[in-house]
């Protein structure tokens, strides 16, 4: 089967509704297009998904995929609703794409979203010190960076207590011919070696990092599975609680569509590590 055909099938699955939730799913409360930050005249927006029950609730920041140059918060809507039905407040945030700004703008946006969640925790019914972060692909890269470098910002940010990612690049120094990384950092590794190191989450594993769940497709030919395996090894060596979950998919199936078992694993992980009673969503 050609790669072109594989990508076509993945795209058809996304646009044909494979990301839809089962009919009859319990509705959640939704607040759309909340401005969490402003940069150079551009408003950065977030959508909030809340349980039907009154809060405060543990919260999860959701970061979308798209190679840092495509996508939006809407990609995480079904995931947000799934978390809200399980008792979390889920905040799906946009971040500046590489056609708008280069790194580190994206990690600044991620931290701004966490700051906004903390500042607005009463209105959003969030427990400000019971927060996790979940990201897919490029969003997973940002989730790892924000969560693993959060200690220095804890006085102003929501305290990230658990991180879950799927298909996330964690060592940009080994993705030296990737055009998306080139666009993110504004050059190749030979031109900007320090930038490639600075933007790599694998550099920031320390003993005081929160628990991490790494999910990766066995057949990922865009972000190799070795990225998450190396990240898991680095975290484990630092004494961090880490779980690696191999998925029988490629990159697109792992990071672009609603994967019931993947979301169930993330819900279970956050419930265990944010002190919430574990009743994970059923896998489809």
How does this model look, in words?
With 284 residues, the chain is α/β, with parallel strands linked by helices. Helices cover 32% and strands 22% of the residues. It has nine helices and eight strands. It has helices at residues 3-15, 77-85, 105-119, 138-148, 179-185, 193-198, 226-237, 251-255, 260-273, and strands at 29-39, 42-50, 57-63, 89-93, 126-136, 160-166, 212-217, 242-247. The chain has an eight-stranded mixed β-sheet with strand order 1-2-4-3-5-6-7-8, sandwiched between helices.
Q: Which helices and strands occur, and which strands form pairs?
A:
Elements: H1 3-15, E1 29-39, E2 42-50, E3 57-63, H2 77-85, E4 89-93, H3 105-119, E5 126-136, H4 138-148, E6 160-166, H5 179-185, H6 193-198, E7 212-217, H7 226-237, E8 242-247, H8 251-255, H9 260-273
Helix pairs in contact: 3-4
Short précis:
The protein has 284 residues and is α/β, with parallel strands linked by helices. It has helices spanning 3-15, 77-85, 105-119, 138-148, 179-185, 193-198, 226-237, 251-255, 260-273, and strands at 29-39, 42-50, 57-63, 89-93, 126-136, 160-166, 212-217, 242-247.
